[in-house]
Structures are given as structure tokens and as C-alpha cells.
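Give me the fold.
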Amino acid sequence: MKEKADKVASIRQQLFNWLLIPIVSLCLVSAVISYIIAIKLTTQAYDAALLESARELANRLQLKQGQIVLDLPPAALAIF
């Protein structure tokens, strides 16, 4: 009876070992893919915000007496 228990334990150990590598691999691949997606989404959002700021600054540009003048309110200048 002891031999049967040892065989069951060894089969369990083999199954655990066979399944451990694929499961860990899937977890690592999933983590990498999630990281890449998160970086892409945050980069797109940040770029969109910067583009909107650049468009607003471009709308405030004026040409006065041959010089380019940026007309910003004092609160906006304080941010810069």
C-alpha cells in the first residue's frame, strides 16, 4: 500500500512540474503584454494632452510689428 501512495505522490509531483512551467510562462507573458498595453495607452493619453496644449498655444500666437507675440494670461505664464 505504501508503494501505491508513493506512486500517487510522484504522479502528483509530475503533474505539478508539468503544469508549473506553462502556467508560470503564461503569467509572465500576460504580465509583459499588460505592461506594453498600459504603456501604450498612457503614452497616447499624454501625447493627446500635449498636442492639445500645443494647439492652444498656437491659437494664442500673434504677429505684431514683424514679431511673433504669445498672448498668455498671467495664470498660464505662472504654470510655465
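Residues 57 and 70 are 8 Å apart (CA to CA).
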